[in-house]
Amino acid sequence: MKLNYLVLVIAMIWLPSCKSTLHPIPNASKPNVAPEMRVPEWAKNAVIYELNTRQFSKEGTLAKAAEALPRIKELGVDIVWLMPIYPIAEAQKKCNPAETTPCLGSPYAAYDFKDVNPQLGTKADFRAFVQKAHALGLKVILDFVPDHTGWESKWMKEHPEYFVRINGEFTVPIDPFSKQVTDWADVAMLDYNNPALRRAIIDAHEFWVREFGVDGFREDVAGFVPNDFWAELRVALDRIKPVFMLSEWGDIPEHLTSCFQANYGWKFHVLIKDIAKGKKNANDLMTYLSAFKSKFPKQGYQMHFTQNHDENTWNGTERESFGEAGDTFMALVFTFDGMPLIYNGQEASLNKRLSFFHKDEIDWSGPSRAAFFQKLTQLKHTNEALWNGAAGGSVQRLDSDNSASIMAFVREQNGDRVIAVFNLSSKPHETTVQAGKFAGTYNNVMKGNRQTVAANQVFSLKPWEFVLLSIDKP
Prior knowledge:
This protein has 15 helices and 20 strands. It is of the alpha/beta class. The chain has 2 domains: 11-393, Alpha-Beta Barrel (TIM Barrel), CATH 3.20.20.80; 397-471, Golgi alpha-mannosidase II (Immunoglobulin-like), CATH 2.60.40.1180. The strands form 5 sheets. Strands 1-2-3-8-9-10-11-12 form an 8-stranded parallel beta barrel. A hairpin with an 8-residue loop joins β13 and β14. α7 (195-212) runs parallel beside α8. The chain is globular and about 70 Å long.
C-alpha cells in the first residue's frame, strides 16, 4: 500500500494534544534481533510472482488462479505472492464513482484475518491452491495487513481494545514517523501497545502456516509497526517452520535482522524510472548500491521490480514508466543486487492500469514474454553469481568510455560469473568495456550463442540494448 496522505493543516497541532494509544516510532538505534532466525534454503535464488486473484481471471477466484500455476511454474517462478485473500469490510468501503464495473473495495481493508473472501472462494479452495503449488515445487506467501483492519471488522466488533483511540474514537492510520494522518478512510489503526493485539496478530499468522502450509508473508506497510513486534513474530513462526518474510518498506535496516529476508527496493524503482526518463543516469546506480550496502546488513536484500499492484494502478503501466525499455530494466532487475518480482500480466505484455477497487480483468491477449522471462529465471537459478543477498556475488562495475549511459558490471560467486552490459539511454553507443581479468569465452544468455570477451571489449549497442554473458562453473 503506497503512502498517500491527507495532509491536514491542524494535524501537527491536534495529534500531540490528544489522548491516544498511538504506538511509538520503531526504535532504529536499538534494533530488536530475532534469535536464531531460520532462513529457508529455497529463497536463496528465488523469483517472486505477484498474483491479484480477483483481477487474474474473469472468474476472479482461487480455483481459476490455481489452473494457471503450471504456466507460472514454467516461467521459472519460485514464490507466488497472493494479494490479500481475506473478506473485505463493507463499512466505508472505497469505490471510484467514475467506474461502472462492480465495486469490490480494497483488499487491504480486511474484515477477518482468519477467513477467505467468499468472492475468491472458500478455505477449501485456498487449501487446494497451496497444495497444487507445493506439488509443482512452488512456495506461497500471503499478503498480511498488520497495521489496520476495515471499519466494523470482526475485531472492531469483538475486540475494540485492539485499536488506537484518539479522544476515545477509532482513527484512520497515522504515520508514526511524520505524525501525518493518512487518507485511508476505509481502515482503522491497530494498537501495538496492547499485548493482546500482538498475540492476536501472531495467532493469525500461525493459523495460515499451521492450517494451510503457507510459506511466508508479505507485510503491508511494515514500517508502521514497531520493530520489536517483528522479532516476536519471527520467533513464533520459526517454531513452526522456516518462512520467507518480505517487508513492504525500504528504509528500516533493522527489519532485516528482526524478521525479514527482504524489503522493498522503492528507491531503486524510482531511480530506474528516472533513468528511463533521462532524469538520472547509469552512474546513479552505483551511488544507490553503495548507500544500501553501507546502511543495511549483509544478509539482507531488496526485492526489485518494474511493476507491482501499487505502481501499475497509481503510477502507470510498464510502458508508461519505461517506454521501449521495459525488457532492459527487467533484465537489470534480474541481474543487479536483489530478488526480482514478476507482476501478473507482465508475461503477456500487460499495458493496462488495473483498477484497485473495482473488477478489472487482466488482458492476457498481449504478446507473450514467456521466453524472455524463462531465460532470465534460468540464469538466476543456475548461476550463483546472481543469487540473493549474501548467497550471490557483489556487483563490481567495469569501466567504460561512457559511464553516464553504459552500465557494465560483473558478478562472481563459487566459480560462476556474469558480465552484464546495459545501454541505459535512448541513443546508440559504441563503447569499450574494460573487462580486464574477466576476459574469456561466455554464453550469450539472450542470443544463445558463444561470445569471446577481450580485456578491452568493444560493444555496439542500440538504444536500450543489453548483453548478458554467463560462465557457469564446471
